[in-house]
């Protein structure tokens, strides 16, 4: 339990909590509210041999795979959905054996986290019966339910070493407010040994309480205020998904590891070490204002995804 009254720190200090080989839960999902600024700092700090767990993800996990930081993937999905398709860096690393694939389904992850939260060694599931997921997980067990006679799969509790989450608001004490679907973030916060959070804005406690506490302070290890910390994914209602930048990323990733390093990592991660430098590199105020204007009209948000 983390009860220190002021948990604010620099982004670099936040990411220093992560160690080589850690099991890392990545918050958000697909192209929404992913902790991208934190992950770019993770790449800069070169924390390696990570085991990643999460639900359905995209550019966040692909970025870490492209930077060579991932040893094991326990994700349920990594891709760019129907917009761009497969995740190039992730696919290359999995096919080459650089990343050991231990993927499963979203509900399996949920039940594993619930087991850890409840102090139980395992949870029963049905969701992967009849699939090939069991072959990826020799630690899963099967049993016949003593009450119904049904076949069940038993999955072990999962307590990640650390969870990385991006949210809209926090107070200095570490109370977190997430607007919109929390995905698995609440479960990650309760199950993980440490929880680090970037937020768009740190506000006073009374204002935070009025908005509603999604994750209370005692789960949170540290927080850092990072404007547009989810970019190029969305952080509604503050800004939309930057499809133009994602297309640029995807084009670089398709060209292979060396070109991805030269065209993307060097320009948008290593050279742009400060968040303000990154925001300038992705188009500055003109781009950001456009993303913020997603809700002004139907035409405004449609233009973002044209």
Rg from Cα:
19 Å
Counted up, domains total 2
CATH homologous superfamily identity of the largest domain:
Glutaconate Coenzyme A-transferase
Please name the CATH topology of the largest domain: Glutaconate Coenzyme A-transferase
Give the mean pLDDT. 96
**Beta-strand proportion:** 15-25%
Largest sheet: 8 strands, mixed
CATH hierarchy, class of the largest domain: Alpha Beta
Helix content bin: 25-40%
Structural classification: alpha/beta
Low-confidence stretches: none
DSSP summary: helix tally: 14
* Distance linking N and C termini: 46 Å
Shape: globular
The CATH architecture assignment of the largest domain turns out to be 3-Layer(aba) Sandwich
Spell the H/E element sequence: HEHEHEHHEHEHEEEEHEHEHHHHH
Number of strands: 11
3D architecture notes:
With 306 residues, this protein is an alpha/beta fold. It has 2 domains: 11-104 and 159-304, 3-Layer(aba) Sandwich (Glutaconate Coenzyme A-transferase); 123-156, no CATH class. It contains 14 helices and 11 strands. It has helices at residues 11-15, 36-45, 59-66, 81-84, 88-96, 106-118, 133-136, 185-191, 205-211, 243-254, 257-270, 275-281, 284-292, 298-304; strands at residues 23-26, 50-57, 70-78, 100-101, 122-125, 141-144, 151-156, 162-170, 176-177, 194-202, 222-225. Strands 1, 2, 3, 4, 8, 9, 10 and 11 form an 8-stranded mixed sheet that branches. Strands 5-7-6 form a 3-stranded antiparallel sheet, with helices on one face. Strand 2 (50-57), helix 3 and strand 3 (70-78) form a beta-alpha-beta unit. Helix 3 (59-66) packs across helix 5 and helix 6 (106-118) runs parallel beside helix 8. The longest helix is centred in the last third of the chain and has 14 residues, at 257-270. It is globular and about 60 Å long. The model has no long low-confidence stretch (mean pLDDT 96).
């Amino acid at each position: 339990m983390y009860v220190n009254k002021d948990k604010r720190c620099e982004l670099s200090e936040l990411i220093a909590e992560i160690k080589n080989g850690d099991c890392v839960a990545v918050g958000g999902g697909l192209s929404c509210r992913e902790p991208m600024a934190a992950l770019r700092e993770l790449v800069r700090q070169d924390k390696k041999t990570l085991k990643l767990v999460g639900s359905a993800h995209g550019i966040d996990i692909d970025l870490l795979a492209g930077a060579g930081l991932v040893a094991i993937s326990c994700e349920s999905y990594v891709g760019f959905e129907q917009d761009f398709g497969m995740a190039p860096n992730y696919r290359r690393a999995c096919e080459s054996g650089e990343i050991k694939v231990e993927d499963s389904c979203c509900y399996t992850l949920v039940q594993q986290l619930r087991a850890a939260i409840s102090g139980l060694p395992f949870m029963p599931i049905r969701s992967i019966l009849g699939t090939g997921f069991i072959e990826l997980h020799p630690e899963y067990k099967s049993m016949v339910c003593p009450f119904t006679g049904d076949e069940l799969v038993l999955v072990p509790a999962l307590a990640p070493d650390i969870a990385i989450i991006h949210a809209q608001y926090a107070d200095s004490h570490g109370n977190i407010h997430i607007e919109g679907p929390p995905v698995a973030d609440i479960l990650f916060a309760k199950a993980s040994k440490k929880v680090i959070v970037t937020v768009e804005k740190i506000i006073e406690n009374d204002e935070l309480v009025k908005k509603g506490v999604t994750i209370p302070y005692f789960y949170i290890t540290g927080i850092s205020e990072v404007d547009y910390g989810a970019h190029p994914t969305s952080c509604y209602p503050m800004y939309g998904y930057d499809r133009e930048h994602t297309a640029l990323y995807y084009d670089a990733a398709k060209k292979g590891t060396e070109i991805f390093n030269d065209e993307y990592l060097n320009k948008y991660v290593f050279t742009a070490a400060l968040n303000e430098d990154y925001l300038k590199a992705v188009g500055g105020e003109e781009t950001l204002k456009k993303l913020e204007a997603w809700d002004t009209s139907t035409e405004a948000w449609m233009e973002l995804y044209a």
